[in-house]
Design goal:
The protein is α+β, with helices and mostly antiparallel strands. The protein has five helices and six strands.
């Protein structure tokens, strides 16, 4: 596990928690796929909240010189995917998250405790 990616994942988890995202999960998927080292999964209470979570992550990370490579789904805002290279952030509405069930799909991934992000 790359310390820089781990630290950035913890920062994203904290940003989501501060912005009142629901059911926040960090998954280490680096041993299961070449797509990314970490997935961050969270839910918003509405499409407006989902967009604001995406905007907050973009703004806070840009302050540190970290910029998103690609964003998908922003206009519909039922599932926004943010690609940070080694980290992929998935922000869902509750119904979309239940439908796609990424946690079940990546059930073998190691979960990163949110407490680790909040203790900083």
């Amino acid at each position: 596990m790359d310390k820089k990616s781990t630290d950035l994942t913890l920062k994203i988890l904290k940003i989501l928690d501060d912005k009142k995202a629901l059911d926040i999960k960090g998954l280490y998927v680096g041993e299961l796929t070449t797509v990314a080292d970490y997935f961050v999964i969270a839910s918003g209470t509405s499409t407006t909240h989902v967009k604001s979570l995406c905007d907050e992550i973009s703004e806070k990370l840009a302050e540190d010189g970290v910029y998103v490579n690609h964003i998908e789904g922003y206009n519909s805002a039922t599932w926004i995917l943010m690609d940070y290279g080694s980290i992929v952030v998935h922000i869902f509405t509750k119904d979309e998250r239940n439908f796609y069930s990424l946690e079940r799909l990546w059930g073998d991934a190691k979960e990163i405790a949110l407490d680790n992000a909040l203790s900083d």
